[in-house]
Amino acid sequence: MKHGLFLIALCISALTGISACGNSEEKEEGEEAATPAVYGKIKEVQIDPTVNPEMAKKGEKIFGVICKACHKYDERYVGPALGAVTKRRTPVYIMNMILDTETMIQKDDTARCLLQVYLTKMPNTNVNETDARNVLEHLRDIGQSR
Amino acid sequence: MTTRAPYSTVLLLAVVLALAGGCTSKKNASVASGAAEAVYVAPGEYDEFYAFMSGGFSGQMSVYGLPSGRLFRVIPVFSQDPEKGWGYTEETVPMLNTSHGFIPWDDAHHPELSQTDGIPDGRWIFINGNNTPRLARIDLTTFRTAEILELPNSAGNHASPFTTMNTEYVVAGTRFSIPMFDKQDVPIASYKENFKGTLSFVKIDPASGGMSIAFQILMPGFDYDLAHAGKDNSHGWMFFSCYNSEKANSMLEVEASQNDKDYIAAINWKKAEEYLAQGKAKEMPARYAHNTYSDKTHSATSVMLDKVKVLNPADCPGMVYLIPAPKSPHGCDVDPTGEFIVAGGKLAAVIPVFSFSKLRKAIEEKAFDGEIDGLPVMKYDAVIAGEVQKPGLGPLHTEFDGEGNAYTSMFVSSEIVKWSLKDFTVLDRVPTYYSIGHLMIPGGDSKKPWGKYVVALNKITKDRYLPTGPELTQSAQLYDITGDRMKLLSDFPTIGEPHYAQAIPASIIRDKSVRFFPITENRHPYVSMGEQDTRVERKGNEVHVWMTTIRSHFKPDMIEGVKVGDVVFFHVTNLEQDWDVPHGFAIKGAATSELLIMPGETCTARWTPLQAGVFPMYCSDFCSALHQEMQGYVRVSPAGSSVKLTSNGLKQQN
């Protein structure tokens, strides 16, 4: 079954000619994320240089209930490891992946490419914007030491 | 529904079909032209009405769309439903508790929507359990049974659950009279002396919908059949049809059809409230279950109650009057203005229409024709507004279109008869296939009917569908009633036996549907708030598993250390927070059903493995591309084995 699905994914990527996927994955390792087109409903996120510990703490709780079922900090699980996600993705991208998942998976190149790797669509989590912002703060917090 | 272009194909098809076969054209001779277009709801479009049909002897309620006749959901109410885990999960088993213990089945007859100012408001729908007398309330934001109340001093809760104008009360009249209170073990032949009926008035909490028996009225030993509340001028009154005024206790088909007239019992419930406030009710010992389901704890609780207030009409003058009605009346229907009370005397040659204003006047003038068991009997001529002459055979039940017309089902002659409330003359008649029982117009028993369709709820289908062995499908039929003549539009199958039904514009309910339960508000005692809470714990021979689901895995998915003789409780929390993503949970050898866990909900399966081995478990409701990968194992070792209890290699926490 898994092999089958993987083959299908390979075929799809071959047919649709998304050869950029490999490149974009490479990009995420090192370079600062470029400013890609914004597809999700969040267009701007206000970020303070220092992490707000109170928000981060609230975010950690939400992360535990909602996100941890599929994401670990330092290793791949159902979805990608998120411990250092703030180093490779913009706050707007992260907020949109949480709040507007379907649009991102359909339209955003990076999100589309990640689906080909992980094969499980990230479900809608229906968290509100405040909770999503707190999760982002938590990810910024843990990202500092990574 | 509104664009015309796509219908051309359908119409063409209908024409071709009509021309094609002599056999179809003969049976469908009465189908109106344009019928296919009228009931066609294009793919992806919505129906105009929700229809709620009783599931009859399935004990459930079904939800259809009108005009399409498409089935959307079967709501489990009084019977176990393994598809949804209803009555199998630890959380829902208490919903089916009664004073007779756990009762997994009932016979559900009459759905009734809650009303505000006499108009269906789409908050709740009630339905009666006929066999082990119960009353259920279904929440129309979740389309789930939220509450079940057993009825003491009742046997066959048939005259139920009809609501007053503002859902102050939902009533429950007993079909069977029985011996009650301190004298229950008596010879059946002592019926006339010892058997009584009760009419229960169940108070509905206006905010929560919570049900409690405010009072019961002790009545003569008749059979109580159906009811409807007054409206506007007649608000404050409830009317019950009753038969077996002969008080027969055997061969009722002969013995209970002797009298020329039976009765409509007119109850002044505002008066009853006054007597209740004056302390005229006697508090009687009783035993009945009250079961409630919480969307916060995702669990039901069952409480056994031990007393009920009973009003005896002998102590309460002016509370109950008997109106003579011809021959074993069934339907007891009040028109939208509240002035007319229509009795469907199923053996009667006419349909009697009683006038509420005449009833008031006759009561003032004491136009009585004797009394029965101390209850005044009204003079027929003093309260009758008119009779519909030659309506057909076997008038059963009447609904209204809000345009001054009434529609009565005719069981024996298999037809719907439309007649005028102005002069009580017959305007139109149309055949039904076959033996119509109740009928239903959306809002047709309320102050404001949406009089576009009438649905016939038939008892016999005979040759209408492809045969399926000895048991044939149950059936409803949809008719257009917007013109002068009623037009048959379609047949559609139903579940159980459709007794009564209700319908309401979809717009009133649709947008209130709950999509998922917020996980952060889950107060289930065994919730796992995220995967980090998942674990296994042993308490004696009980093993509790805190488990989560999300597309597409269980956590934990490897459990070891269960022993033969253990009882395992899988408390499964669905962490999904999106619409239409339930997960299932099934384990080999389970003597219960699957779990079907809604997003944000926790459900518990009890599992008693009888042999050692490794048992697979899996998700039974397709959830994602990797649904088939959503599985796990439980290892069961012999009793006395030293295998440690672990989940995914981690030992139990305490």
Structure description:
The complex is a heterodimer of chains A (146) and B (654). With 146 residues, chain A is mostly helical. Chain A has one domain: Orthogonal Bundle (Cytochrome Bc1 Complex, Chain D, domain 2). In chain A, 58% of the residues lie in helices and 0% in strands. Chain A contains 8 helices and no strands. Chain A is globular and about 35 Å long. Helix content of chain B is 9%, strand content 43%. In chain B, strands 6, 7, 8, 9, 10, 11, 12, 13, 14, 18 and 19 form an 11-stranded mixed sheet that branches. The longest helix of chain B has 14 residues, at 7-20. Chain B starts with 6 loop residues before the first helix and ends with a strand.
What's this entry about, in short?
The complex is a heterodimer of chains A (146) and B (654). With 146 residues, chain A is an all-alpha fold.
Provide keyphrases for this structure:
heterodimer, A: 146 residues, mainly alpha, Cytochrome Bc1 Complex, Chain D, domain 2, 8 helices, globular, disordered N terminus, B: 654 residues, mainly beta, Methylamine Dehydrogenase, Chain H, Immunoglobulin-like, 2 domains, 11-stranded mixed sheet, 7-stranded mixed sheet
Topology record:
The complex is a heterodimer of chains A (146) and B (654).
Chain A: H1 2-16, H2 20-29, H3 53-67, H4 85-88, H5 91-99, H6 101-107, H7 109-118, H8 129-143
Chain B: H1 7-20, H2 22-27, H3 35-39, E1 49-54, E2 61-66, E3 70-75, E4 97-98, E5 101-102, E6 112-116, E7 119-129, E8 134-139, E9 144-150, E10 157-159, E11 169-174, E12 178-179, H4 191-194, E13 195-204, E14 211-219, E15 223-229, E16 237-243, H5 252-255, E17 261-268, H6 269-277, E18 282-294, E19 299-311, E20 320-326, E21 329-334, E22 340-345, E23 351-355, H7 356-364, E24 368-372, E25 375-378, H8 380-383, E26 384-388, E27 395-400, E28 405-410, E29 415-420, E30 426-431, E31 436-440, E32 453-458, E33 474-480, E34 487-494, E35 501-505, H9 506-509, E36 535-539, E37 542-550, E38 553-555, E39 558-563, E40 567-574, E41 583-587, E42 595-597, E43 602-607, E44 613-618, E45 631-637, E46 646-647, E47 650-651
Parallel strand pairs in B: 14-19, 37-40, 39-45
Antiparallel strand pairs in B: 1-2, 1-35, 2-3, 4-5, 6-7, 7-8, 8-9, 9-18, 10-11, 11-13, 12-13, 13-14, 15-16, 16-17, 17-20, 18-19, 21-22, 22-23, 23-26, 24-25, 27-28, 28-29, 29-30, 31-32, 32-33, 33-34, 36-37, 37-38, 39-46, 40-43, 41-42, 41-44, 44-45, 46-47
